[in-house]
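pls read this stuff:
=====
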Amino acid sequence: MITFIWYPRCSTCKRAKAWLDEKKICYVERDIVLDHPRVEELSCWYHSNQKSLGNFFNTSGNLYKELNLKEKRLSMSEEEQLELLGTNGMLVRRPLIVGEKGILIGFKEEEWKLFFEEDLK
């Protein structure tokens, strides 16, 4: 089973959800604001993923900009960044797919097709 972590008011998340539904892929929904990722989860996902920690940040979000994180993140340790991400779901890039096969960050249809290749057969 996979977990689809999203923000219901986000248009990209809505497109991703529609894509999953159209492909009849089973998932459990999790609202990123009501049940935001915890530091332990984020750390696990980051360390099992081959992307930079920066990929987990919602760099286009208002909160990211208000906190001036583009500059501040440069001087933050990995642990401090994970702690910060764990404080507010709006700082985390979405949607997220979390499953046994790994994790997807953001919605890129080609990447999702490859990830779900077995499920789409």
